Amino acid sequence: MTRLAISGLGAIGGNLLHLIATLDDSPGPDPRGGRGLDLRVVAAVDSSGAIVDAGGIDPAALAAHKAAGGRAVDLPGVTVAGGTIADVLAAGVEFDMLIEAGPGDLETGGAGLVAVRAARSAGIPVVLAAKAPLVLAWDELTGPGPAVAYSACVGGALPTVTLLRATLTSARATRIEAALNGTSVYVLSLIEDGLSPADAVARAQATGIAEPDPSFDLDGWDAACKLVILANATLGTRARLSDVDRTGITGVTRDDLLRARAAGRRIVPLATAVPGVDGWHLTVAPAELPLDHPLARMDAEEMGIVVHTDVAGRLSATTREPDAIPSAAAVLRDIITLAG
Ligand SMILES: NC(=O)C1=CN([C@@H]2O[C@H](COP(=O)(O)OP(=O)(O)OC[C@H]3O[C@@H](n4cnc5c(N)ncnc54)[C@H](OP(=O)(O)O)[C@@H]3O)[C@@H](O)[C@H]2O)C=CC1
Ligand SMILES: N[C@@H](CC=O)C(=O)O
């Protein structure tokens, strides 16, 4: 049995609860990984507070309660144990893994970083969906101590870190290009189709992929976080957010998009890492790509990465994620890996 504490019960946490509730449901000869793993949610936290049940909170009931707009503390049959993961630990509720899926705070790391530190101090491994703790405390969270897994932080279900690490085992990257903020890809596509920017953002929020504060996506912060994590995890560098030359997509107009398209190009919200004599140059900015470029061929719901190498050719991979379920599946993949 693996006892979970889940902090953040929104698009990611809610979908994760649903995936946990249906873990054993996949039929046929190719069951989903983790089938038979006894994952028990013993603590859950949202903005209303922390709820606990050592015997296990029903994940389907909690997911349905949250999807209906309920507050965690109002779920029938559970005990309220303060407001934070530290409170849960102080109440003596034991768990084996923390899932941090709360909002990001790029100034301080916010409640997420506090929760992660509390868990690790108690010897408990962590799975992150929230990027801010990792971006702000990379050395601490990837250094000695309980494991921290973070594949959902770097492009939803697209295993970008795994792809890069495997590729760079025998090759050198000469340029990395990625479109890893799904909201920006989606919003630009809808604007090109004729929607107003406000309507496009509202549609992105309705899917669950946009951040609560859309400027986190539209101003390039989310892509910059992903680029920093990717660079630190795979390129042997120690990048910070301030190292990223960042431009968002808010200056891109429908005219720009149509003009590019008419010229055989597409404007893509691009994150790039390029090696220079003084280290890696990290940039997030809208870029015009020729239509035969793998990232220009993506549709509105896709994200992708292209790795140009010296001897291993050019690798590219994309993922289509119309909602937050694939990212929740990436969190589940980390849970299963750590529990295994
Ligand atoms: N959505 C996506 O596709 C992806 C998101 N992420 C990251 O995962 C994290 C969660 O994203 P998402 O689920 O979309 O966000 P949501 O806004 O949908 O959900 C955030 C959740 O955090 C809860 N919350 C707010 N404050 C606190 C707090 N102090 N302590 C604990 N929980 C709190 C909210 O409570 P309440 O329900 O009461 O409002 C809500 O349940 C973010 O950091 C995001 O960047 C990563 C990959 C993909
Ligand atoms: N807001 C993000 C969600 C995943 O990290 C995005 O749009 O890609």
Automatic annotation (TrEMBL):
EC class name: oxidoreductase
Superkingdom of this protein's organism: Bacteria
Record Pfam families: Homoserine_dh
Pathway where it operates: Amino-acid biosynthesis; L-threonine biosynthesis; L-threonine from L-aspartate: step 3/5; Amino-acid biosynthesis; L-methionine biosynthesis via de novo pathway; L-homoserine from L-aspartate: step 3/3
The Homoserine dehydrogenase catalytic domain, residue ranges: 159-336
Its EC number(s): 1.1.1.3
Keywords: Amino-acid biosynthesis, Methionine biosynthesis, NADP, Oxidoreductase, Threonine biosynthesis
Reaction(s) catalysed by this chain's protein: L-homoserine + NADP(+) = L-aspartate 4-semialdehyde + NADPH + H(+)
Entry-linked InterPro entries: HDH_cat, HDH_CS, HDH_short, NAD(P)-bd_dom_sf
Molecular function terms from GO: homoserine dehydrogenase activity
Family: Belongs to the homoserine dehydrogenase family.
Designated name of the protein: Homoserine dehydrogenase
